[in-house]
Specification:
The structure holds two protein chains of two kinds. Chain A contains 20 helices and no strands. Chain A is mainly α. Among the domains of chain A are: about 80 residues, no CATH class; about 40 residues. Chain A is elongated, with a radius of gyration of 34 Å. The relative contact order of chain A is 0.04. Chain B has one domain: Transmembrane di-heme cytochromes, Chain C (Fumarate Reductase Cytochrome B subunit). Chain B has a three-stranded antiparallel sheet. The chains are: A mainly alpha, B mainly alpha. At the A-B interface, α17 and α20 of A face α2, α3, α4, α5 and α6 of B.
Amino acid sequence: MKLPIAACLFLALTAARVNAADDALCVACHDEKGSPVHASIHAPLGCTGCHSDIKGFPHPGQIAKVNCASCHADAAAALAASVHAKASPQLCEACHGGAHEIVAVKDPKSPVYPLNLPRTCGTCHGNKEFAQQHGIADVYSEYMDSIHGFALTKDGLLVAATCSSCHGSHDILAPSDSKSRVNRANIPSTCGTCHNGVEQQYQAGIHGQAFAAGNAGAPVCTSCHTAHQISGVRETAFQLKTSATCGDCHREKYGTYRDTFHAQVSALGYTETAHCWDCHGEHGILPASDPKSPVAQANLVETCSKCHMGASASFVTYSPHADARNGKDYPALHASALFMNLLLAGFLGFSALHTLLWFIRLRAEKSRAGRSKA
Amino acid sequence: MSSAAENSAGNGARYFTRFTPVQVVLHAVLVVTFLGLAATGLALRFSGAASSRALANLMGGFPALIFFHKFLAVALTVDFLYHVADIGYRAVVKKQLWLLWGPNSLVPNLNDIRGFFGQIRWFLFLGPKPQFDRYTYWEKLDYWGVFWGMAVIGISGYAMWYAPLFARLVPGSWLNVALLIHGEEALLAVSYIFVVHFFNEHLRPQNFPMDLTIFTGRQTEKELEERHPTEYARLVESGELQRLQAAAPPAWANNLSRVFGAVAIVIGIVLMILTVEAFLSQ
């Protein structure tokens, strides 16, 4: 028999007096005086509220297993369909705490209170050996060092994303399941639950449009930001590595970027230089052919001026992706590279040969002098 | 006093001035600034190399690195312009026209071509060792190579330093060319100085481990006669030799020169090795 929670509470409250009298009977044997059962959210239900098969005293030695689902039917149904269904025989207690100590989710003492949830999930998902043994994700420490983890632990924000914000609670599904909140197809909307403004920008941009069109290669939030290790976007480490992330797909553009001073500065570990997003934008990236794009021809002076004071129409004819090997698009650069390579090879080749001949001649002279002396 | 002369070049050797004190100082500044520019510049050119990152971190990051690069660039520019002004003043105002043409000038002439082919014949055992005047063809090549390099690297460097201003004078797309030739010409300069110049002037068996003439400004009579026989004969014949005679360099000057030269050569060779390594692994 499955009763809605409200009905359970109603019964519990109206039956409180009777139950309290029953409880007095129970504690005659089961000394639970010091037990937090009295602080449990289920205390008003009385012992028989959960141990409903006990009808009187004495009761049989073997009593039935408490069925949380008799009140919490929705949660139990969701759990039964989730990845955790076969995880543990004491499923409810594994996350919510011992049966007699269960407190409300909103209670700061609850193991599933937002501030405590990562540690609770981390019991399994933060235990390297256990995770390896059971083939589950070991991501607790990654999360704790992420911007979401810091928001929770350092800033104490209840709105910070915890495990359940992205994965759900009772209804957690494997990421490969198309209905999972963290399935690739659902990631923008899952992150967009909190980062809604960003989601809107993303959907208006070329990446979001490609994603909506079903392009399997289109990046989603986690492609650039990662899942559990998400760091602040102003963090040096994030800024230094993320141009290369763009380069995972935009290989050629990243290659030509690396030939520029912008990239050289970044490679030395300094972030105040142009990265991909400084010119192209971040979430709402648009192709240069779109007049709203910061790299559209008409917007280049403004975009370059963000760093280069005094940038002019002439200045922006500089190409941040010039390719010296491409003679068709960059004839002057291509010719200069050819000239410099010939100059280098020719001059150094000539000098090296000259030096070598000189050295050989001097050795020969020395050994001849040595012989004539002898 | 006499012991210093004995220490440095045998018993009572006579010394003759080859470079003026101004030229000695200009070369020393050139050495210091070139090494610093090479180290900081190569770190940018090969910014992916671990040694580049290490140098940048050691100096206090990219801002410090680029500060030193620019500071040294200005110092070398002053050095370069001082030299040009010095030559210009002496040639034009003091009418020392021999600076611009003739056996004492660094301006190339037909004798250099003869000297070059003579030297190649000598290399190949096809002729006698050629007789050189005040400047050999490879010394002139050293000089003009550095002159050309400073002009090319300097102009492209200042173009990038003042990029928006530069783009008002010429198309901004030239800035792409500027970075390319700045880096390539620098590689040429570094390779040339740290391999060819070091060998020609310092490390080759006759001069090993280094020739102190550019540091003390003076050479012995034997050195003058061996290296520049035509000049020596000319100076003896005209009686000018006497006028060029100088005191033996004091011991401190020789020692300082050795330390300075040795440090410069070692730094140069280390930079060269790192450059080759970075070049091959890029």
